[in-house]
Amino acid sequence: MADVINSLSDRLLFGIPKKGRLHEHCLSLLSGADINFHRHNRLDIALVQNLPIALVFLPAADIPKYVADGNVDLGITGQDMILESQVGDRIEQLLELGFGKCKLEVQVPVRSNIKNVEDLVGKRIVTSFVVLAGVYFEELDKKYLSDDQKKEGKKTKIEYVSGSVEAACALGLADGIVDLVESGETMRAAGLQSIAVVCSSQAILFRNKNPSNPSLVSKLTSRIRGVVAAQKYVLLNYNIQRHSLSEATKITPGRQAPTISPLEKDGWVEVQSMVCKNNVAEIMDQLEEIGAKDILIFNINNCRV
């Protein structure tokens, strides 16, 4: 380990979630950006082989503080972790990554008499997001507690737990919880329902405001932006008669403009255009309706846009 630490002085330090819901997505993102490394078992530092970078694998909740304090130059974590760490003024958000999407929600037992957040004011909340929950319920306390209750010091009680938050109500520890929701399956299995959204979140790439190597940060950001864009788009290739070209390019305008090439067959052209992956089936249907032929889809592994 000492040899690894000594080798980091001339390397950009990049904080990556060591486990959890973001970890595998991050590894795929690094691979797509051609960031090659080998991580030894039980070692949380990995040297990148083709760039002067060291990956530091950290708990996702700790990465905002490490980046803000300058211990690492840039990192990936959830926006919820940034907000909870209260370091937004000391970091610079570079790129939303499109994965790890979730919502921080207020949840209560389905069978309880609590139907909205106003009913939770002055009661007990359990969460691992005590800062965000505290700010949220502080505003509700101001709005819904009476003057007499405020004078008595009554307020919504926020308590911290590190895991199994969804069990708190069933165990009698809380009247409601504040927790992350992705698909909602865990919430429903625990007999809970959502009554309010505190904030939405997804994974982001962010940096310290004074990284050790700004040009390398810029290069990494460009590579990762290309991977993220490639996940959203496909390359659509088709042939169309020239008299229908204007109508076709309205369907496939591309990000800048489509590429158009004449074919050997008189009156026909080939068109290439980037289109949103989510809309590709509908786009192909529209092209076929106006006479397009040989409509092909190609996946994009990386790009610069």
From TrEMBL:
Entry-linked PROSITE patterns: ATP_P_PHORIBOSYLTR
Protein name per Swiss-Prot or TrEMBL: ATP phosphoribosyltransferase
Domain ATP phosphoribosyltransferase catalytic positions: 60-226
Alphabetized UniProt keyword annotations: Amino-acid biosynthesis, Glycosyltransferase, Histidine biosynthesis, Transferase
Pfam family, one: HisG
Annotated pathway: Amino-acid biosynthesis; L-histidine biosynthesis; L-histidine from 5-phospho-alpha-D-ribose 1-diphosphate: step 1/9
Catalytic activity: 1-(5-phospho-beta-D-ribosyl)-ATP + diphosphate = 5-phospho-alpha-D-ribose 1-diphosphate + ATP
Stretches assigned to the Histidine biosynthesis HisG C-terminal domain: 230-302
